[in-house]
């Protein structure tokens, strides 16, 4: 009977194992091996050893790599401040009995169900410097001096993309924080009110400490997602991550290097694979730490 149970378990696990091996393990192993070769996609692969990594870290592609890497760090820092900070504040407001709360909850979460390509298309039109809704609105209310070429100014483009990204993902963080807050036992809050605590003190000394584990988990996940960001930059600025690479991130650098593109100086799957391996080295240790902390929290 026990042997039959094990066979059934293996039978159910097998499809997932095959899919995971085919689409995750094998591509990673192949990419790791390919990172030691020079290969434009056709013809014979040329073994170059660590040359691809040297070119990226200290060679001719080092400046582009550093530029993209810094943008990823900057992207993570700002999205963490706004998505997690605003997410927590809005979730606290939703716990209260404000009028029309359900409507606001729907409006906040609605962008999260829109595909990223559609988000890019919508905001490309809204941010158009000539006839976009954003500049039109600013001029209508007498703030025309604030109208800018939001995606065409190197000093504004990355911040604009981050703002669109916050608009797109904020609802998810609000939902997670809201679930964490309503899971706090009401007796703790009622006892604090009885002891004379005001709303700010309850938020500071009860609600916030209780949601810190959720905040830590979201922070780690956000770091991982920030280093895998590609779609929002591609949707708004294209593979060249303009203007003048001011919105370039590791995802667009990888795509442009591996698959080429308008203005690409080199198309090399091996070089692109090396960038992917470096991204893996950056992200995976933190992912493992997150898995360890999650398991530790589950056991405790």
Query: What are the segments in which pLDDT stays under 50 over at least 5 consecutive residues?
Result: none
Q: What is the CATH domain class of the domain at 35-98 and 170-299?
A: Mainly Alpha
Name the beta content range: under 5%
Strand order of the largest sheet: 1-2
Instruction: Kindly report the average pLDDT value.
Output: 88
- Computed over alpha carbons, the radius of gyration is 24 Å
- Find the CATH topology of the domain at 35-98 and 170-299: MetI-like fold
Q: Indicate the overall shape.
A: globular
Q: Write down how many β-strands occur, each being a DSSP E stretch of 2 or more residues.
A: 2
Q: CATH-wise, what's the superfamily of the domain at 35-98 and 170-299?
A: MetI-like
Distance, first to last CA: 34 Å
Largest sheet: 2 strands, antiparallel
H and E string: HEEHHHHHHHHHHH
The portion of residues assigned to helices is: over 70%
CATH architecture of the domain at 35-98 and 170-299: Orthogonal Bundle
């Amino acid at each position: 009977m026990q042997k039959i149970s094990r066979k059934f378990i293996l039978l159910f696990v097998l499809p997932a194992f095959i899919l995971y091996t085919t689409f995750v393990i094998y591509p990673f192993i192949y990419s790791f091996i390919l990172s030691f070769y020079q290969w434009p996609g056709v013809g014979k692969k040329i073994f170059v050893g660590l040359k691809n990594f040297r070119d990226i870290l200290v060679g001719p592609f080092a400046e582009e790599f550093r530029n993209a890497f810094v943008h990823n760090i900057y992207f993570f820092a700002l999205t963490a401040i706004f998505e997690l900070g605003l997410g927590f504040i809005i979730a606290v407001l939703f716990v209260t009995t404000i009028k029309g709360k359900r409507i606001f909850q729907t409006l906040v979460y609605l962008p999260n169900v829109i595909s990223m390509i559609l988000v890019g298309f919508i905001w490309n039109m809204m941010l158009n410097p000539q006839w976009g809704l954003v500049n039109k609105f600013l001029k209508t209310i007498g703030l025309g001096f604030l109208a800018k070429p939001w995606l065409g100014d190197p000093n504004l483009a990355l911040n604009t993309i981050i703002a669109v990204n916050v608009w797109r993902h904020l609802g998810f963080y609000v939902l997670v924080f809201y679930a964490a807050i309503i899971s706090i036992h009401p007796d703790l809050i009622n006892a604090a009110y009885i002891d004379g605590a005001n709303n700010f003190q309850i938020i500071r000394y009860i609600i916030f400490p209780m949601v810190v584990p959720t905040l830590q988990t979201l922070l780690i996940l956000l770091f991982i997602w920030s280093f895998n960001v590609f779609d929002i930059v591609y949707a708004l600025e294209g593979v060249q991550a303009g203007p003048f690479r001011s919105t370039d991130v590791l995802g667009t650098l990888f795509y442009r290097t591996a698959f080429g593109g308008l203005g690409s100086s080199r198309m090399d799957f091996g070089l692109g694979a090396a960038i992917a391996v470096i991204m893996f080295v950056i992200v995976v240790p933190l992912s493992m730490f997150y898995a360890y902390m999650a398991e530790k929290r589950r056991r405790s």
